[in-house]
Specification:
It is a single chain. This protein has 372 residues and is α/β, with parallel strands linked by helices. It has 2 domains: 26-45 and 282-370, Aspartate Aminotransferase, domain 1 (Alpha-Beta Complex); 49-278, Aspartate Aminotransferase, domain 2. It is built from 11 helices and 12 strands. Helix 1 runs antiparallel to helix 8, helix 2 packs parallel to helix 8 (267-278) and helix 5 (153-163) packs parallel to helix 6 (183-196). It is globular and about 55 Å long. It binds 4'-deoxy-4'-aminopyridoxal-5'-phosphate (PMP). The site of 4'-deoxy-4'-aminopyridoxal-5'-phosphate (PMP) has 13 residues, from helix 3. 4'-deoxy-4'-aminopyridoxal-5'-phosphate is lined by residues 38, 100-102, 126, 171, 175, 204, 206, 231, 233, 239, 244.
């Protein structure tokens, strides 16, 4: 017989490490201006929507069959995109794709970490790195960052030497701070990670198309334990598509296939992503607009007296607030949803359309009396 009363998660035989925990969840509130999840504000252009319909229609004819398990056509086009935009030759064999870069990261942790192993990230950073670690039974180690949210290569290398993690996450540009790291820093961390184990270094470049600087992808050359992860959720304006990918030595691509579910990337997803890649130039045009809107947000927030973190991403971290959550709520009362990532005294706003950013800046101007 079932005991009376409500049944909660902790009444179920769930794994110990999941007890009392909350799922990842940015609020999905229905407000006029949503600048909280670093999405691209521009809907896909009509020509691309038509092309997606065409390619999905063709794929639909064959849905009785499983999709290409290795997504070769898609990986070939992703490799072409990476080669063109980084100047570094990348082949299909260097590329692997999955349902969002979150799944790419999960596959990497399943392959290179897991029970009895550990991963480190330098916090505050992307919270899913620790959550996916937990979900894969990987011990999480919180590494240090400077007061101004930059990475101190010596302190980070020291943490790697001390903890000897199996996976090292470097997020550049970093979420939620917007901070990018240079090649020198990644090389210092890579050397520390190789000396400690060797371990896998994952450079999460979800936002790199918005950066003032270059991609770190060329560093994969001659470094089989270095992986760069990317996504179509931000620059390509296709968060709803769920398509992430990585570039690395072909041996890494072979290794993740040990854990990927067979046929994980649906034929519909592959067809849609291929259509989007045909329109790369149009989509990257929106990136230029968003970069200048990002720079405008930094300039105007600074002029209002906020402390603003330099940003290489499509979002801006600003503060300081005595009570960041109260400030978040006041902005929300003006119909604008920003993000409280839990960084003390700070909030994060995603660059939207010029009109959305104006609405946000009007709300922020009213907050200046709350700046601590
Ligand atoms: N990495 C970082 C740093 C992110 O901010 C995000 C999205 N918020 C992701 C990866 C995952 O994005 P997706 O799964 O949509 O590719």
């Amino acid at each position: 017989a079932t005991a009376p009363g409500p049944v909660g998660i902790d009444d179920l035989p769930v794994r110990e490490e999941l007890r009392g925990k909350s799922p990842y969840g940015a609020p999905q509130l229905d407000v006029p201006v949503r600048l909280n999840t670093n999405e691209n504000p521009y809907p896909l252009p009509d020509a691309l929507v038509d092309r997606i319909a065409e390619r999905v229609r063709e794929a639909a004819r064959h849905l009785n069959r499983y999709p290409d398990r290795d997504a070769v056509a898609l990986r070939t086009e992703l490799a072409r995109y990476l080669t063109r935009t980084t100047g570094h030759p990348v082949a299909a064999g260097n590329v692997w794709a999955a349902n969002g870069s979150n799944e790419v990261l999960q596959q990497l942790l399943q392959t290179f970490a897991g029970p009895g192993r550990s991963a480190i990230g330098f916090e505050p950073s992307y919270s899913m790195h620790s959550l996916i670690s937990r979900g894969t039974g990987t011990e999480w180690i919180s590494g240090p960052r400077n007061e101004d949210f930059t990475l101190d290569p010596a302190a980070a290398a020291e943490a790697i030497a001390r903890h000897r993690p199996h996976v090292v996450f470097v997020t550049s540009p970093n979420n939620p701070t917007g901070t990018a790291v240079g090649a020198d820093t990644v090389l210092a961390l890579y050397e520390a990670a190789q000396a400690a184990r060797p371990s896998l270094v994952v450079v999460d470049e979800a936002y790199v198309e918005f950066s003032h600087g270059d991609s770190l992808l060329p560093l994969i050359e001659g470094r089989p334990n270095l992986v760069v992860s990317r996504t179509m959720s931000k620059a390509f304006g296709a968060a709803g598509l769920r398509l992430g990918y990585l570039a690395a030595h072909p041996a890494v691509v072979d290794a993740v296939q040990l854990v990927r579910l067979p046929y994980h990337l649906s034929a519909v997803t592959q067809a849609t992503a291929l259509a989007a890649l045909e329109h790369t130039d149009t989509l990257l045009g929106y990136v230029d607009r968003l970069k200048s809107e990002r720079d405008r947000l930094v300039g105007e927030l600074t002029a209002m007296g906020f402390e603003v973190t330099a940003s290489d991403a499509n979002f801006v971290q600003f503060g300081r607030f005595d009570d960041a959550h109260a400030a978040w709520r006041r902005i929300l009362e003006r119909g604008v949803l920003v993000r409280d990532n839990g960084v003390p005294g700070r909030l994060r706003v995603t660059a939207g359309t010029p009109e959305e950013n104006d609405a946000f800046l009007d709300a922020a101007r009213e907050l200046t009396s709350y700046v601590g």
